[in-house]
Amino acid sequence: MQTSLINKIVVYAVIITGALLFVFPFIYMILTTFFQGTNTLPKPEQVFSVKVNFANYITVWNKNNFVNYFMNSVIVTSVAMVGSLFLGALTAYGFARFTFPGKELVFRIFLLTMFIPGVINIIPQFVIIKDMGLVNTYSGLWLVYIAGGVIGNVFFLRGFFESIPKELEESVLIDGGGNWRIFWNIYLPQSLPALGTLAIFIFQGTWEEYFLALTLIKSEAMRTLPIAILMFNDKYSTNYGQVFAASMIALLPVILLYITFQKKFVQSGYNEGGVKG
Amino acid sequence: MPDSALTPDTKQPPLMRKSKFKLGLKQWLTVLPFVAIGFIGIAVFVIYPMIRNIMISFQDYSIMPNAANPWVGFDNYTKVFQDPNDRFLIALRNTFLNVAATVPVNWFLAVFFAVLINARFVKFKIAFRTIYYLPIVTSWIIIALLFKYLFADGDGGFINFILHKQLGIIGEPISWRNNYWSAMIMIWLFHIWKTVGWGVVIYLAALQGIPKDLYEAADIDGANAGQKFWKITIPLLKPITLFIVINLINGAFGFFPQVYFITQGGPMNQTHVIPSLIYIEAFQNLKFGPASAMGVMMGVLVFILTYTQMKKIGRQRMF
């Protein structure tokens, strides 16, 4: 049955309005980054009459050790991402392929902890890192990021791992390979879409993480990007053009990753193993 | 477990059958190389912090080196409730308000937009999905800065500019973050705008799993769009709806950046939620004991909430 033209127009009107509501603030933000220098709140008329220029981006990039903070974030995020992926995959492999007494009980206890809001744990995590003498080191930050993320990542990966056909293992077993070879040669390559999706989630989560980084890292030179952006906002509270230029620079890697890979994303949780096309 | 028959340990010939305990031990030893690091990490940085948090809540805790940190029983808990400004109780009230205000709106918008985008004739579905998902991939801090900017005081703020100067709906520009209700509304709008795309994407995926012939059969029976929505789409989406609503409740329950970055709890600590209160109490006021006590109480609350939800879901595969 054909949908009537009026219905089509109404539906399109509604979803385009929705899309505009989501996209407009970003456009307004981008326009503001072209707004030049004065130390007052840019008025809407002014924002809509800006000319495209990258002066604020250049200023921000060279100011306030911004490059330094950007690189700090790159280091913190890449190590945390690789570590989390590896540990998550390894632990998920243990849960997916092996049977051991108490497996489901342990898994359920782990899942329960996922519902406790992370902020509650920040105080004791800070105390533990302090006791280990790792305050103000990236190692401390990595430990909390990687170990704190294991449960969620295992939860995400386990379903995908369990959907890998057992027959695939036979080739490795015939060659005399063991559990490690099965992990490396079968499970990791077979679940690349899931691992890739998870990698992007971890990247985003770590890249924008604020509270732990603020709590554990005390020296200004070691701060990460999200804190640097807020420092911009404090120090130059009235220069909106610069604040949002800094935000856009921080945002760009994440948005590019999503737009590039979004067709390959897998959906997690409720239909595990499903690969979204 | 159906897959147990395929794991290496149970493939052994009956000759080598061992006692149940020995078999279990052997299974643990086989799996341990793969899960040991993960388990240690979880124990040290997830489980132990929860225990440590409970301990700190009974201590007069100081982060100074060599502090005595004496045990003080329930002192921290009574302190939380003896607060002359009732900050904890206000934060608790706000938490429930946040759930009540955002979950229904968030749910409705998610299913509404997903169903419309999923309509057969709509083109550029992926483009719409991407746009609706943009706020999700953007960091809380940046969106918070953006919202504070859009909701700035006076006619220079975009929202005031539209509502006051352009449309004339409000008599004078609102100082959004200086009044309790306007600040709360701003926080809710911020949260909904930031998170609704998640529900849309989940629903869109779920909608693709609904067999098309159901709708065709309904068409033959002469059902209109509304009937198809209420009689086919909604019932078939029920498990997903449960999943989404539970996540929305937990998300609204765990408001933190929403409040911390927008109002910092102001005006006069009126908009705090428990997480933002905990963080400020601990790391700005350095009162770790009372902050931990609040954490324990919130943890218990979340546990009860989650436990009842899990029971409701029963043995569905999502947990």
From TrEMBL, chain A:
GO BP annotations listed: transmembrane transport
Q: What is its main location?
A: membrane
The transmembrane segments are 9-31, 69-93, 105-129, 141-161, 182-203, 240-261
Membrane topology is:
Multi-pass membrane protein
What InterPro entries is this protein classified in? MetI-like (IPR000515), MetI-like_sf (IPR035906)
Query: Gene3D superfamilies, from UniProt?
Result: MetI-like
Say which domain of life the source belongs to.
Bacteria
What are the GO cellular component annotations? Answer: plasma membrane
User: Where is this protein localized, as stated in its record?
Assistant: Cell membrane
* ABC transmembrane type-1 domain boundaries: 70-261
- Keyword Transmembrane helix on this protein? yes
One matching Pfam family: BPD_transp_1
Report the PROSITE patterns cross-referenced here.
Answer: ABC_TM1
- Family stated for the protein in its record: Belongs to the binding-protein-dependent transport system permease family.
PANTHER family in UniProt: ABC TRANSPORTER PERMEASE PROTEIN MG189-RELATED-RELATED, SN-GLYCEROL-3-PHOSPHATE TRANSPORT SYSTEM PERMEASE PROTEIN UGPE
Please identify the protein, giving its name as recorded.
Answer: Carbohydrate ABC transporter permease
What is the species listed in this Swiss-Prot or TrEMBL entry? Paenibacillus pinisoli
